[in-house]
Recover the amino acids of this structure.
């Protein structure tokens, strides 16, 4: 498919112990032959694939560095092509020199994501697995790594293949009836097909609903921490971030600016905003802070509404409850390590007003596991095993899945209404081609290029 041989440094840019140059394409071995020599004098054309050899990286007959060489013979390589990997020392200058040497020996510079793109085009990876590899590289917390790791190993691709098999079976059965146009689909056959269609619909619906969960893990949820001054918002923010990022004092009105940071709580990634305590004030600077807090509250997808459990409730607490009305909010009763002064009636009111209530101590981190459970429940992450299950990972996949789902629904309705097999078949074939878009069994070159251009060079 590709006739050029490309090279790039596949390790991250910057000083490090080791850097790796990857060369892929028909001439990979010839390029490596011109720049790497073995102490035994053995030619690189005679090495065993997948064995690591020590040797010298040579320019104009002189060694510029020493390192290792591994040859992966096509098709048993990441890209499916001949691949040579040369590891050298990870200095900025030496790495660049090794790359330039490879280019002068006949390789072309690889574009962003080119190795993964080649792996996809050469049938070594499905598109959803290739996308997942990008997410593995971008992962910044454990949940993101588990989610993308499962997809990279083929969780979604395998699930799609299974659903595809059911759909192909349905199409084949419908065709069998089309061949005898005078005969209607027998009742028995119709009911069997209806059962299979229900199964397919069930699987597709499950996948569709997994998107909300996967988005909560990978993209993160805009979350505002609000409450009256001194409730412990900044303390909660610091506890969730695992760092003393926000200033905490016992002076009401400490926080003025909005501070933002990403934290992983349970399996959910929260894009947290700590805000100024909401109250009426004559202080001009604090007023601006309160306005910004209200803005963040309105923009947020989730609101963590903090109440001071060690103080009697005030009118301000009631006002804030009104402010968050209609938002997806968790009432967080803080300072559980102190004597409870919040009235029982008010606590009961919180349980009535909020779908979720957590009692915590931001100071000791007690109860934060309960908050994590609540967040997992909100995004149905308690129902998904993100380390293994198939999930929809992005809007592109969701859009194809939704179209496929519509078409399967169409087929099911047609079947239930007693329509002729050709009508059912037509919907099913459309559904299949939509579903096939997810793993790019039928995707345009434009979409493929767009996806791989988001990768870094060397991947
Ligand atoms: N005992 C106890 N004290 C807490 C807890 N959380 C916060 N505090 C104390 O409550 C006071 C206010 O905490 P902050 O985190 O600054 O409160 P805040 O809501 O951000 O306050 P403003 O920024 O002024 O709106 C500080 O003295 C904290 O040490 C807790 O869980 N237990
Ligand atoms: Mg604060």
């Amino acid at each position: 498919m590709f006739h050029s041989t490309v090279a790039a440094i596949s390790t991250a840019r910057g000083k490090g112990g080791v850097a790796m140059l990857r060369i892929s394409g028909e001439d990979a071995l010839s390029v490596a032959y011109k720049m790497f020599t073995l102490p035994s004098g053995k030619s690189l054309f005679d090495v065993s694939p997948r064995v690591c050899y020590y040797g010298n990286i040579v320019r104009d007959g002189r060694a510029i560095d020493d390192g290792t060489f591994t040859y992966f013979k096509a098709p048993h390589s990441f890209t499916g092509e001949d691949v040579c990997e040369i590891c050298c020392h990870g200095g900025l200058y030496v790495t660049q020199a090794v790359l330039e040497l490879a280019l002068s020996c006949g390789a072309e510079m690889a574009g962003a994501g080119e190795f993964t793109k080649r792996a996809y085009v050469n049938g070594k990876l499905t598109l959803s697995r290739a996308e997942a590899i990008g997410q593995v590289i971008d992962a910044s917390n454990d949940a993101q790594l588990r989610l993308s790791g499962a997809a990279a190993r083929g969780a979604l691709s395998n699930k799609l293949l299974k659903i595809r098999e059911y759909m192909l079976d349905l199409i084949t059965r419908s065709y069998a009836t089309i061949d005898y146009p005078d005969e209607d689909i027998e009742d028995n056959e119709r009911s069997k097909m209806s059962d299979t269609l229900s199964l397919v619909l069930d699987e597709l619906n499950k996948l569709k609903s997994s998107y909300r969960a996967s988005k909560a893990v990978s993209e993160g949820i805009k979350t505002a921490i609000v409450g009256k001054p001194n409730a412990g918002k900044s303390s909660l923010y610091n506890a969730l971030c695992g760092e003393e990022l926000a200033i905490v004092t016992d002076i009401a009105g400490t926080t003025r600016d909005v501070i933002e940071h990403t934290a992983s709580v349970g399996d959910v990634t929260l894009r947290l905003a700590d805000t100024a305590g909401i109250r009426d004030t004559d202080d001009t600077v604090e007023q601006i802070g309160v306005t910004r807090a209200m803005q963040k509250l309105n923009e947020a997808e989730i609101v963590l509404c903090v109440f001071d459990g060690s103080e009697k409730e005030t009118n301000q607490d009631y006002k804030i409850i009104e402010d968050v009305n209609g938002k997806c909010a968790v009432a967080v009763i803080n300072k559980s390590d102190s004597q409870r002064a919040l009235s029982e009636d008010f606590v009961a009111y919180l349980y009535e007003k909020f779908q979720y209530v957590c009692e915590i101590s931001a100071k000791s981190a007690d109860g934060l596991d309960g908050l994590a459970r609540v967040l997992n429940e909100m995004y149905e992450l308690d129902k998904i095993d993100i380390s293994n299950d198939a999930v929809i990972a992005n809007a592109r996949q969701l859009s194809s899945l939704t179209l496929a789902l519509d078409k399967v629904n169409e087929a099911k309705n047609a079947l239930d209404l007693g329509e002729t097999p050709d009508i059912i078949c037509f919907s099913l074939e459309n559904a299949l081609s939509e579903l096939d878009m997810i793993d790019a069994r039928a995707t345009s070159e434009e979409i493929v290029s767009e996806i791989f251009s988001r990768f870094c060079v060397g991947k």
